[in-house]
Design brief:
Blueprint lengths: L1 E4 L5 H14 L8 H10 L2 E8 L2 E11 L4 E9 L8 H14 L6 E6 L9 H15 L4 E2 L6 E3 L6 E3 L1 E6 L8 H15 L7 H4 L5
Length: about 210
C-alpha cells in the first residue's frame, strides 16, 4: 500500500476515489467532487489517496485555514470493503507528517459527529464513538466547544458536530481567544461564510 496525491492519479483511479467519496458522505456534507479535484491540482487543497496495487482504497482531503495556520481535515474515507485494514491510519499519518513539514500549518482540526446526540440509534452511536476513538488513538483530542453547528453544503439547514484537534508542530490546543479565532476561521475560510452570518456571529459566545 502506498499513499499518493489525488492529482497524480489516472482517470479510472479518480473515478474510484469519487465513488468512495459519494458512498461515504451524505449529500449535505459533500462539496462537488470536481471542486476537490480542481483545488488539489491548483494546490488550494491537499488530497491524498491510499492505493494498493493501483487500486484506490481511500482518500483524505484538507484545507489550510491561513489565519490560524491549521489544516482543516474535511474528509477521510475508506472503501467499505477495506475498512479496518489500517488504510485510514496510513492516510492520517501521511496528512499529519505533511502538516509537520509545512511552515504554514501548526495543527489539524476536524469535525466528528456526536455519539450522544439525541434520537440516534445505538448502532450509529457505536460507529460515532469508534470514529472518535480512531482519532484519539492518533493524538487528537476534543475541543471544549459546545453547540457547534455547521451549514449543510447542499440544501438548507445546519448539522451539530464536535470539534477535535491534533498537534503538528504546536504542542497544546488553542484556548480562549485563540479557540474563538479557530472556530471563526472554520466558518469564514472553511465554509466561506460572511462575517455577518449568524454562525460566525455566534463564535463570540463560544
Amino acid at each position: 500500500m502506498r499513499v499518493t496525491a489525488l492529482s497524480d492519479l489516472d482517470p479510472s483511479q479518480v473515478s474510484s476515489v469519487e465513488r468512495i467519496y459519494l458512498e461515504a458522505f451524505p449529500a449535505g456534507e459533500r462539496m462537488p467532487f470536481e471542486e476537490i479535484l480542481r483545488d488539489a491540482a491548483e494546490g488550494v487543497r491537499v488530497a491524498y489517496v491510499a492505493l494498493d496495487e493501483g487500486t484506490a482504497l481511500g482518500f483524505a482531503s484538507a484545507y489550510v485555514l491561513q489565519s490560524v495556520q491549521t489544516f482543516f481535515l474535511e474528509y477521510l474515507a475508506i472503501d467499505e470493503m477495506h475498512r479496518g485494514g489500517g488504510f485510514g491510519g496510513e492516510l492520517w499519518y501521511h496528512l499529519r507528517t505533511d502538516a509537520q513539514h509545512r511552515q504554514d500549518v501548526t495543527a489539524i482540526v476536524l469535525e466528528v459527529e456526536d455519539p450522544d446526540e439525541p434520537d440516534i440509534d445505538p448502532g450509529t452511536a457505536v460507529t460515532r464513538r469508534r470514529r472518535i476513538c480512531f482519532y484519539e488513538n492518533r493524538g487528537a483530542r476534543r475541543l471544549p466547544i459546545t453547540d457547534f453547528r455547521v451549514p449543510l453544503l447542499q440544501g438548507d439547514g445546519e448539522k451539530p458536530m464536535l470539534l477535535m484537534w491534533a498537534p503538528a508542530t504546536r504542542p497544546d490546543p488553542p484556548t480562549g481567544d485563540e479557540l474563538t479565532d479557530l472556530v471563526r476561521a472554520l466558518y469564514e475560510e472553511g465554509y466561506d461564510l460572511p462575517p455577518d452570518h449568524p454562525l460566525v456571529i455566534s463564535t463570540s459566545g463560544k
